[in-house]
Design a protein that fits this description.
The protein is about 50% helix and about 20% strand. By secondary structure, it is of the alpha+beta class. The chain has 2 domains: about 5-150, no CATH class; about 155-270, Beta Barrel (OB fold (Dihydrolipoamide Acetyltransferase, E2P)), CATH 2.40.50. The strands form 3 sheets. It has a 5-stranded antiparallel β-sheet. It has a 3-stranded antiparallel β-sheet with strand order 8-9-10. The chain has a two-stranded antiparallel ribbon with strand order 1-2. Helix 1 (about 10-30) packs across helix 5, helix 3 runs antiparallel to helix 4 (about 80-105) and helix 4 (about 80-105) runs antiparallel to helix 5 (about 115-150).
Length: about 270
């Protein structure tokens, strides 16, 4: 399943989620009394206002913790939509569990703690499904709108068509998006950018079969097993034993070996 946009991990949406969700909870309960929650929050002792404030603060606390955790783990997390929905469900369940602590005290002796806890989770889910769904759709619409505005016109002259050994077209990529190509036995691994993310496509072919097409589009051989896009090379360096390595402009991409016979030619292009 497709991964959620990286925008969801950024600070503005993070702040939006943990401010709007508790505010919506407080105002919605106060204005509409959904599911007759006022009777439940009163806990049979007229503590409606106090319990509403405590519940709102619990929503705030859990949302701040959860969304800041998403932000702090943005470099290692790559949630798809199923996992993101599961994350939101976890937020709601956690809110319900924390709400059950003060509400369980209020309803002690009247109903079991398990009943109170279940009601807290159901109330939290029934109310927070609205702001979480609306905010998620708003962020996603923003992402789609931004992509539509920034999507460049593809120049057909930059497109490289990759065919397998049977001369079947497998993938078409812009030369500008390709980071490097690596051979391995009877396969080549094409490492490229798609909407800012590094992806890999494995093709059954040989370096010799690709050589003419990729070199015509600006990629250069830097090693017997590698073609490299010089536009993405950030620097060339030598390791402790003198082997040359090309560092690309993407941190998550490995450094590419550069053979002596290609070093001078590559240096001239940078």
């Amino acid at each position: 399943m497709k991964a959620i946009a990286r925008t969801f991990y950024k600070m503005p949406p993070t702040v939006l989620f943990f401010t709007v969700a508790p505010l919506f909870f407080f105002l919605f309960v106060l204005a509409y009394d959904p599911f007759h929650i006022s009777d439940f929050l009163a806990a049979g002792q007229g503590r409606y206002t106090l319990n509403l404030i405590i519940s709102t603060l619990i929503v705030l606390g859990v949302m701040v913790f959860s969304r800041m955790l998403l932000y702090l783990l943005r470099r290692v997390l790559d949630l798809n939509w199923s996992l993101y929905v599961l994350w939101c469900t976890g937020e709601v369940v956690l809110i319900g569990l924390f709400m059950s602590i003060p509400m369980g005290i209020g309803w002690a002796g009247v109903q079991t703690y398990f009943t109170t806890m279940s009601l807290c989770v159901l109330y939290a889910a029934g109310i927070l499904v609205f702001p979480l769904s609306i905010l998620t759709m708003a962020v996603q619409l923003h992402v789609l709108g931004k992509k539509a505005r920034l999507a460049p016109m593809v120049d057909e002259r930059t497109l490289i068509r990759f065919y397998d050994e049977q001369k079947r077209l497998k993938i078409v990529l812009s030369s500008e998006a390709i980071l490097y190509i690596e051979s391995e036995d009877n396969y080549v691994h094409i490492i490229y950018l798609d909407s800012g993310r590094v992806k890999e496509f494995t093709l059954r072919s040989s370096m010799r079969a690709l050589e003419e097409a990729v070199e015509r589009h600006g990629l250069v051989r830097c090693h017997r097993s590698f073609f490299l896009n010089p536009a993405h090379v950030e620097m060339l360096r030598k390791d402790a034993v003198g082997y040359a390595l090309a560092q690309l402009d993407r941190e998550e991409v490995k450094q590419i070996p550069v053979s002596k016979r290609y070093y001078e030619a590559l240096t001239a292009l940078l």
